[in-house]
Amino acid sequence: MRFPAALPTSGLSGGLSGALPTGVSIALLAVLSTLLAASPAFPAARTPASAVRASASGCTDHGSVTRDGTAAYDAPGGDVDGDGVNDVAVGDPFAGSGGQAGAGAVHVLFGRSGRAKVVLPPRPETGGGFGWSVRLAYLDADRCADLLIGAPYADVDGVRDAGAVYVVYGDGRGEPARFVSPTPQAGAHFGWSVASAGALMAVGAPHEDDGGVRDAGAVYLFTAGAPGAERRISQENEGVIGNSEAGDMFGWSVTLGELGGASDEPDLVVGAPYENDDGTGRQDGTGTPDSGSIAVLFDVRGSTGAYVSKKWDLHDVVETEAGDRFGYAMAYTRQGNTGYLAVSAPLGDGGRVKDTGFVRLFQASGAKELVPVASFEPGAQGVAGGGYGFSLALTGEGGEARLAVGAPFGGTNGRGGVWLVPVRNPAGARLIEQGEAGDHFGWSVAFSGNRLVAGLPDHGASGAVALIGRNDDIGALLAPGTGEVPAVDGGTSADFGTAVG
Amino acid sequence: MEDVNQPDVEGLRPGDPERIGGYRLAGRLGEGGMGTVYLATTPDGRPVAVKVIKPEVAVEEGFGARFHAEVRNARRVASFCTAQVLDNGNGEDGRPYMVTEYIAGTPLSRQISRYGALDPAPLHGMALGVAAALAAIHVAGLVHRDLKPANVILSLSGPRVIDFGIARALDSAHGFTRSGEILGSPGWWAPEQVRGLEVTQAADIFAWGCLIAYAGNGRHPYGRGDMITMATRLLNGAPDLGTLPAPLDELVRRATSMDPAARPSAQDLLIALVGGTPASPATSPSPAEPPTLIADGVLGETWQPPANVEPDSTRTLGALGLEAAPPPPAPSPRPAPVPSGAAVPAPSGTARRAGIRRRRLLAGLVTVAALAVTVAVLTRTIDKTGQPPRAGTTPVTGEDVGRRIATGSLIEDPYLIVPAPPRCGLASYQGLTAKKGTLCVIGWTLVNAGGKRVPLTSTPLALIDEHGAAHTPERPAADPPQALEPGDRADGELVYDLPSGRTPRRLSGHVVEGAGQVEVRLS
User: Fold this and answer.
1) Could you say which of 2.40.50.100, 1.10.238.10, 2.40.440.10, 2.60.40.1240 is the CATH number of the domain covering B404-521?
2) What secondary structure does DSSP assign to B396-420, as a single string?
3) Is B481 part of the contact surface with chain A (CB cutoff 8 Å)?
4) A129 to chain B: which residues are within 8 Å by CB?
5) Which of B39, B142, B161, B333 pairs as cysteine with B392 (C-beta 3.0–4.6 A)?
6) What's the pLDDT tens digit per position in B166-202?
7) Residue A299's domain spans which residues?
8) Is the pLDDT of residue A408 over 80?
9) The complex's ipTM?
10) For residue A40, is it within any domain?
11) Which CATH architecture has domain B106-383?
12) Residues of B involved in catalysis
């Protein structure tokens, strides 16, 4: 993906700008209006200030959010337009947009008005995969959530499929920023996974070679508004337990949360689901292949030099099986003084039934380090290959921590399913099923306020998402080009709902 | 658009043009996200409504062409119980406009909010009139898509349905701020619209049911709420239909069925409302003539406008120095234009098999001349079953377009996506020229989201047409990769030279070396 010279390309080497510019040039306005335009053909009437926001007020009130955004909102997700009701971002990385096949597109669904808006890549690129990962994050000091959008198949400076991440500010003031690796690598897929805690962003590049080790994977940390604070982390960094081995895919999943160490300092969790369980030291090609692991790096923001980390291989959690893919998906939430981390193994052997999948729950209370506390599995309704744990979401909304587990290949007729699990009362878990055979309901899940959002990317030609009320058994299906969800201008929706955030 | 054609006409505002096309503007009838509706007069002094599209909508690429195409369709709709579309064009500034009859009257929305539920007699008349309007719209192959109380005007001459026919043009305009108007209104959606399924004429029938329940009870059958609330109720609960007089209670219950196929057609409703038995859900296999004549005759005896309607509209027109609209022209026995390809129905043996009871009921209401045509139309409707008409509905895409096609496990193995329907009928494409007929281009994406390197076959997918014949693609400009590394993807296009008249049905073949066959249903 090539950029006009006027757009600041934020990278490690190029001087990261990332944050709140004071001046906005005409060229930037043009780029921004294209990026945010529901209709790129629109002339000057469209201004950045009205771009993502649905209402004319709300973003400037700083509320209770601190500069680094750590004192976030109780309700999960984010409120892009600042109207007090959380919104949802939905990614379709295979959508055609701007006349380019597979350039990708993201919709923002506004929770209060029920309207929606399309966010397109600034320069739609064939096969760029914009929207592969999406996240709502509070990156700047205003009260409007910002969009973190991964495009892992974007070309960077002519390097094929190196990958990029875009930040689109919720208030439409700051210009969108592009984040890339300072040394773009072909097929690294930077932006495969994204996470944030306040202004701190983590970006996974699981297919990046590390020191010549193929697909060992890496994670990048950026801080919005703090150029120069960016870092690359692989399993070879001092203090990161483990080694870069071929095909580990460290960075397949990332999350940030408070899981021990100093309070109010985010800890980074990195999933490496294709890591072989092979004991200490570098042992390529031996051990139990693809059982997977996670690494937790404590107080990652302040760590200079050596990291303090803890690693869980699958055998630390349960009996290890080859190909379980522990660390495939992760979710974090905080409820009161307790941080919860859920980690899945979608091909794990839940309930000793092969390949039905399971989820491990970790808990960190106060400043204590996290410990595994529970396992969840689909039980009698699980099927081998059902993908229990393919996607995960956690919420503390409503005073009760709840876990959503996507099983997009299970359910009646293989239409998929989402399990809702009260973490303190797993017996109260229930299975939600929706859609038709092959819809892959539960491919993605997220909480937004008191609603659960689940993707059905293969529902019909365009894909869909279901918005499911807290106590509902079935959700309202939304798809591009129907109801108040606009279609993608100059393009075609293909897999709307592949990512939700 | 809320309260379009409301009697309280505002004066023109600074900046409003004096004329649009050949129409002199006299006042404003309403304004919505899409445009402004003016009361205007024709050169010969007749009042009309002129809807002018806002500049920011009009500027969208291709909007003008879509708009005019839809209006041309709408002009085919018989004038009965609708505000007839009279003209369309582009103003001096290039903004498209459409001209319809001006219906002096009260929008149903305002009638209910100000005066409460309709009494049984006007309720029945309104139900019949709106059903007749839908029959006329549907028979022209259109779907209203935005039937709601603000789009039903209670006039002296009967209820009239406005704002039809252009919903599809607006649907394709993806303007964000305007979406509330473009894409229907919360509470007046059918379940399939919310689910993102195909929208057919049955969606209008669902809205008809909600509309009658609303008018008969003075409250919406799904209550009030924001879009999500309404959508959730719509999908999860039965509507509160309240108390409605027979036969409306049963008709509304069936019209609001969750299953589109279980709903009656507009013509079923018409028959039931003039005294016949509600027919089983069945629709005409092909567009036929509008059932204008019968409904006109019946309605003339049925319609009792609510007491408040007359003074309002008269006063309005007087205040603007206009005369009341002349009464609608007497129904002409001349059949409305029939969409091409549809046979003109004629009284036949089939017609004679029409129910004796129905014939008796109708005979007292309409002229003999009208009856001959009408019975033919209705008989075609109720004696045949078949697929619902496709005209006017969204195009059907193949079942597998836009869906992941697994080559094995979706966690472990690559998946194939054909993100958009095939583009066919091309004479040439990127240097290739059709030799056998025309070219079909099919884009594809293959993603290896698993953990291992996957070898790909070198034999491209074959395209199977409707006769089962297999076609191999032209040689691509760049050879696809021989293998996909973990996380990698490949994108490309397959170009097939199809003999003329052939339709692509599916792609078939092997993608991954050593894996099973994949099938992609395209239509």
Assistant:
1) 2.60.40.1240
2) PPPTTTTSEEESS-TTTS-EEE--S
3) no
4) 489
5) B142
6) 655 555 443 322 333 334 567 788 888 877 777 789 9
7) 9-500
8) yes
9) 0.85
10) yes
11) Orthogonal Bundle (1.10)
12) 146
Q: Which residues of B touch A215 (CB under 8 A)?
A: 485-487
Q: How many domains does the structure of chain A reveal? A: 1
Distance from CA of A194 to the nearest CA of B (A): 16
Task: Decide if B488 and A458 are in contact by the 8 Å CB cutoff.
Answer: no
Contacts of B412 in chain A (CB under 8 A): 347
B21's torsion region: left (phi>0), alpha (psi -120 to 50) or beta?
Answer: left
Query: Coil, strand, or helix at residue B181?
Result: helix
To the nearest whole Å, the CA of B55 is away from the closest chain A CA by: 10
Q: A3 lies in a domain? A: no
Instruction: Quote the tokens at residue B416.
Output: 């194939």
Q: Look at A483 and B397 and tell me if their CB atoms are within 8 Å.
A: no
The Cα B485–Cα A3 span in angstroms is 27
Question: How far is the C-alpha of B367 from the C-alpha of B293, rounded, in Å?
Answer: 9
CATH number assigned to the domain comprising residue A178: 2.130.10.130
Question: Cα separation of B260 and B279, whole Å?
Answer: 15
Q: H or E segment at B439?
A: strand B437-447
Query: What pLDDT, in 10s, does the model give residues B45-64?
Result: 888 889 888 877 777 777 78
Q: Where in chain B is the domain with CATH 2.60.40.1240?
A: 404-521
CB-nearest to A494 from B196, B417, B451 is B417
The pLDDT of residue A454: 98
Which stretches within A366-466 are classed as H helix? none
* pLDDT tens for each residue of A218-273: 999 999 877 767 899 999 988 888 888 889 999 999 999 989 888 788 999 999 99
Q: In chain B, which residues fall in CATH 1.10.510.10?
A: 106-383
**What global pTM score does this model have?**
0.60
Q: How close is the nearest chain A Cα to the Cα of B450, in Å?
A: 9
